[in-house]
């Protein structure tokens, strides 16, 4: 991973690392595939996590740990979407809005998880130089991916909230390409949110008796 951690080029005075650039390009592709409800979003996301794990390992242990969890959730998402294939009219997974109970559970998990991870980062300062925002992004990413795995439209809202903190934090950490990509994530999130929102209404329509499936 030494060659991947070398500098690729400089952009607007920011040093762009190969690992940062390649990993986030895969992450961007994974988000686009998620928008299209392609099951390949998960292996691509796993690969992005693997590359970024190599980028962070050794000097930003907390960020490396986040990528390890991302890879585990990507494996869970692959399993969930394999089970859910063919549920919608076009042969992909069907999407829906979460119930109020599910929303409450995700918000509670995000809040409790952020506090727990931030306290862990504060107890071990080598894990993160900025515990609270790093914990927020860490836990928010996992919650977003979980919602995506379950086909919930709220997945996009969670990603948008992560982006609001992720952009400045990545620039501050010296991962400029991650910051630029998070800006593009924001645009994709808005388009994906609209698409899944409309799709959820279509997938929720009852099938009339005698009508073709």
UniProtKB/TrEMBL annotation:
Superkingdom in the source lineage: Bacteria
Protein topology in the membrane: Multi-pass membrane protein
Main location: membrane
Transmembrane residue ranges: 12-34, 46-79, 104-124, 136-162, 174-193
Pfam families in the cross-refs: NMN_transporter (PF04973)
Entries under InterPro entries matching the protein: NMN_transpt_PnuC
A GO MF term: nicotinamide riboside transmembrane transporter activity
Keywords assigned by UniProt, alphabetized: Cell membrane, Membrane, Transmembrane, Transmembrane helix, Transport
Compartmental location: Cell membrane
GO CC field: plasma membrane
Family: Belongs to the nicotinamide ribonucleoside (NR) uptake permease (TC 4.B.1) family.
Name this polypeptide is given: Nicotinamide mononucleotide transporter family protein
């Amino acid at each position: 991973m030494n060659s991947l951690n070398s500098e690729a080029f400089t952009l607007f005075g920011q040093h762009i690392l190969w690992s940062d650039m390649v990993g986030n390009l895969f992450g961007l592709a994974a988000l686009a595939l998620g928008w299209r409800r392609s099951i390949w979003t998960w292996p691509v996301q796993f690969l992005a996590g693997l590359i970024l794990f190599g980028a962070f390992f050794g000097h930003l242990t907390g960020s490396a740990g986040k990528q390890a969890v991302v890879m585990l959730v990507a494996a869970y998402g692959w399993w969930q979407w394999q089970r859910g294939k063919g549920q919608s009219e076009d042969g992909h997974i069907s999407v829906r809005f979460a119930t109020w109970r599910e929303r409450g559970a995700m918000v509670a998990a995000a809040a409790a998880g952020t506090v727990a991870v931030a306290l862990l980062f504060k107890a071990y300062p080598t894990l993160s130089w900025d515990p609270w925002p790093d914990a927020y992004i860490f836990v928010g990413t996992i919650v977003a991916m979980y919602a995506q795995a379950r086909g919930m439209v709220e997945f996009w809202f969670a990603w948008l909230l992560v982006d609001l903190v992720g952009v400045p934090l990545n620039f501050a950490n010296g991962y400029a390409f991650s910051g630029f990509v998070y800006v593009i994530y924001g645009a994709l999130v808005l388009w994906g949110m609209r698409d899944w929102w409309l799709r959820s209404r279509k997938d929720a329509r009852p099938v009339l008796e005698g009508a073709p499936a």
